[in-house]
């Protein structure tokens, strides 16, 4: 009877350890997959930030050019009126 109890305890201990190891491997693989998915997102996010910054700079340049030409046109109109 004692031997049967020992064998059953060893068997259940082995099963529980196997489940625990499998679960930890599953979690590790899931974390690896998530990190692989998040990696490109960070790259895309940085690329979008750079692109947005370039668009803002080009918009500012365009506004400066427009305001500059507008001032020049006003000066020309004043000169023509005189």
Notes on the protein architecture:
The chain is mainly alpha-helical and 82 residues long. It has one helix spanning 2-81.
Output the keywords.
mainly alpha; 1 helix; rod-shaped
Short description, anyone?
The protein is mainly alpha-helical. The chain has one helix at 2-81.
The major sheet is characterized as:
none
* Average pLDDT figure: 83
Number of strands: 0
Strand content: under 5%
Which percent range fits the helix content? Answer: over 70%
**What is the H/E string?**
H
Work out the helix count.
1
Radius of gyration, CA atoms, in whole angstroms: 35 Å
Apparent shape: rod-shaped
Structure class: mainly alpha
Q: Assembly state here?
A: single chain
Low-confidence stretches: none
In whole angstroms, how far apart are the ends? 120 Å
What order do the helices and strands come in, and which of them pair?
Blueprint: H1 2-81
